[in-house]
Amino acid sequence: MKNPQVIGSRKKFGLIVGGSLLFLFVILFLIDVDVLLQLFRTTNWLYIAAATLFLLGGYLLLTVRLRYILLNRPGWWETFYANSIGYMLHITVFAPAMIARTASVGWITPISVGRASTGILLERLMEQLMRVSTGILVGALAARMQTASDMPVGGGGFLLLIMFIAIYLVMRYRDQVADSLVSLLRHVPYLKEEQVRSTVTNMLEGLDAINSTSRLVVCLLLSYATWAGFFIFQFLVLVALPLDLPIDQMVLIAAVVLTVMPPSINVILILYQVVVITLLVTFGLTDTTTALVYAIILHLIQMLCWIVLGLWSARQAHVNFSELIQTVRQTGATSEQST
Questions:
Q1: How many CB atoms lie within 10 A of CB 323?
Q2: 194-202: which pairs have CB atoms within 8 A and are 24 or more residues apart?
Q3: At what angle do helices 174-185 and 193-205 cross, to 10 degrees?
């Protein structure tokens, strides 16, 4: 029987190689170099600076939300340090973001790795909700209907209600949900029933952080506020480029990229650019050269912010990188064994 870890490694390597070849093809055959250089030269860097402030605001709200999910047990600065270092490790040593953040939270804060893992799993649930909500905005804008401006609000409110009911039912019938998920997943190759049950139980325990209506509402509001900051960041970066595009098209471009590649996740260099270019060109939102410039600036700002914040946080928290990286690897190995 094949090792699932080897399969995952080969798949990741294949994605990197394939993405790199596609990126090289784009650069050689689809990019107008003169236009690309002109776009960079005439970019309004004042707007870029303003966009960066909104990005940093979103990152700060990520810390507030994670600390809230962890029941405010770690200190604010401890949570900020751990979050920043986790994202930096994800970028620099290519550790999966969830594993790097879980290990960093367990290393720097008094929260156990297991508790940190369930909290970050809950964060991922919130992220998926934000993606779907942004997808509603994308659909409304793309439809170009007269009522499009009202659809995101109405659709988002309806989705929020459905999500609230679903989470409430999961919390109320946790054991039944666990049994159903175990029954569904135990037939998946490489998964043992006891491992599946342990993972499902840990995921459901993460919902303890929002075991009341008020906590669920606060968590959702923090998530929407975070994504509002991210959306403004991506919109202002687009405004900074010397493009003659209508406002609704610029909003649509920013929303499409936010849905698929939000700043709360980090994708390997080149793969990020390939995905953004493919999205924007496939849907006819921009030309290839503009999409490349937009993707480069977006990703560069995100990477620089997390690296700078991560290095500063590591200095403030007196982190030993070699020991922390070893912990990240151990956390990853444990995760592989339990899934």
A1: 10
A2: 195/337, 195/338, 195/339, 198/338, 199/338, 199/339, 202/114, 202/117, 202/118, 202/121
A3: 140
- Structure confidence by residue, pLDDT tens digits, 105-147: 999 999 888 788 888 888 888 888 888 888 877 877 777 644 5
User: Phi, psi (5° rounding) for residue 146?
Assistant: -65, -30
Angle between helices 288-317 and 33-41 (to 10 degrees): 50
Owner of token pair 């699932």: 4
What is d(CA 290, CA 280) in angstroms, rounded to the nearest whole number? 9
The pLDDT of 227-241, averaged and rounded, is 96
Q: Could you state, in order of their start, the residue ranges of all structural domains in the chain?
A: 34-338
* pLDDT grade for 227, boundaries at 50, 70 and 90: very high
- 206 DSSP 8-state letter: G
pLDDT at 3 over 60: no
b/e map of 146-169 (b: 16 or more CB within 10 Å)? Answer: eeeeebbeebbeeebeebeeebee
Give SS3 for 286. Answer: coil
- What's the Cα-to-Cα distance from 227 to each of 13, 46, 194, 294, 300, rounded to whole Å? 30, 22, 37, 19, 19
DSSP 156-193: HHHHHHHHHHHHHHHHHTHHHHHHHHHHHHTTSTT--H
Separation CA 319–CA 326 (nearest Å): 12
Burial class of 249 by CB neighbour count within 10 A (0 to 12, 13 to 18, 19+):
middle
Helices and strands per DSSP (H, E), number in the chain: 14, 0
Q: Residue 289's closest CA among 239, 251, 256, 242?
A: 242
